[in-house]
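[Meeting: bench + compute handoff]

Bench side (C.D.) handed over the final construct sequence. Compute side (W.E.) agreed to return the predicted structure before the next meeting so the bench team could plan truncations. Sequence as handed over:
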Amino acid sequence: MTSAEIPEPREADSPDQAAVRQMGATYGFGRFVVAPLARLIYRPRVEGKANVPKTGPVIFASNHLSFIDSIAIPIAAPRPVHFLAKSSYFDGPGMAGWFSREFFTAIGAVPVKRGAGQAALDALDQQRQLLDGGSAVALYPEGTRSLDGRLYKGRTGVAFLALQTGAPVVPVGLIGTDLVMPVGARFPSMTPRVTVRFGEPLDLAHHGAADSGKARRLATDDIMAAIHALSGQELANAYNEAPAHSPIERIRQVLPHERR
């Protein structure tokens, strides 16, 4: 083989580039074109980026105030973030269906079928597979959006996933997303600024195994305390009993809930 035939060594992909390559061109477009444009328009205040591990599995556990929370976190995070979205966003007909599919793919959403029982377990398994592959996922321990702005008690599904996979949990405090796009609004407002705060990673392993109800409850309480410190919300001291809107929120119907 002559020197001309020896292939030039290719520089290894960064974790961010590798994730984009796996998700495809649409996600790459969203990550490197749409996200910077959104940051330019909305000028979010992002704090604590250095707290986010650059590689390896990580769970972003956030408060939940608005539909755009699942857009704000991927835009603000220094690495690709994935979350579950109902499969109907990906399989609609016509131009509207195409736009919905492309949009949710661009922001890192992973389709999953809605429902309790096996569907909820399948959703949990999808999150586990993403973490096993070294990806970052975003979840809402409250289960569904807070309609009154208060921070509700956390469900134990996020802690279960963290204890089972060993992934660190980065708490996230979102401020102002409910003003940009209140519940019921069809389009976001251009005026209010959003603040996204990333807290220090939580290692929850000391609480015990994932199959321990006490360990899940204590780990969940740690996660919610960290979110509260970042968001500054009033505590509801109750569970948000609004109907769940996605399978991952319905995990609470499958896993036992330790209440106290």
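W.E. noted at the follow-up: Residues 16-49+56-253 form a domain with the Glycerol-3-phosphate (1)-acyltransferase fold (CATH 3.40.1130.10). C.D. will use this when planning the next construct.
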